[in-house]
Specification:
The chain has a single domain, classed as Response regulator (Rossmann fold). Helices cover 38% and strands 14% of the residues. The chain has a 5-stranded parallel beta sheet with strand order 2-1-3-4-5. Helix 3 runs parallel beside helix 4. The radius of gyration is 15 Å and the shape is globular. The protein starts with a helix and ends in a 13-residue tail after the last helix.
């Protein structure tokens, strides 16, 4: 499944959205991406309400120059307010929005929950406990899908 996600991207110059109520988990994921040379714009949001507002272009995210539509979303399932399932359901209910690729990143997930997420449009998942190991493997297998910014030119 991960192979299909990465092969479907022509480039990763598009924005990335991280939705997680744990600021430390979001920061870890961002640091890991940066450490691997991923220089894409990344927006971090604390819950499903903010994610739906962002994806739908509602205030305070209506300016797409400041808040561009993501091509990839890292989504935690267990969040207050609206959870990751509700974000997936919202995306499913709005076919007019070109859905981004959705990678779940969560602490635990059962088979039934995972099947439900896939039915709702999730593309892949990482367990947070093994996230660094899985990302390292993923990035090493598909180095050409990431566009790297030259820090010297920034």
């Amino acid at each position: 499944m991960l192979d299909e996600i990465w092969k479907s991207f022509k480039s990763m110059s598009e924005p990335i959205l991280i939705v997680d109520n744990s600021a430390s988990d979001s920061e870890f994921l961002l640091r890991f991406l940066r450490k691997k040379g991923v220089a894409n714009f990344v927006e971090m949001l604390p819950d499903g309400v903010a994610a739906i507002d962002y994806l739908s272009g509602q205030e305070p995210y209506s300016d797409r120059l400041l808040h561009p539509f993501p091509s990839l979303v890292f989504l935690e399932l267990a969040m207050p307010n609206k959870n990751g399932y509700e974000v997936l359901e919202w995306l499913n209910a709005h076919p007019e929005i070109l859905p981004p690729k959705v990678v779940l990143h969560t602490k635990a997930i059962g088979i039934q929950e995972l099947e439900r997420c896939y039915r709702l449009g999730a593309n892949a998942f990482f367990l947070k406990q093994t996230m660094e190991e899985q990302f390292r493997d993923l990035l090493s297998r598909f180095p050409d899908i990431w566009e790297f910014a030259d820090p010297a030119k920034a």
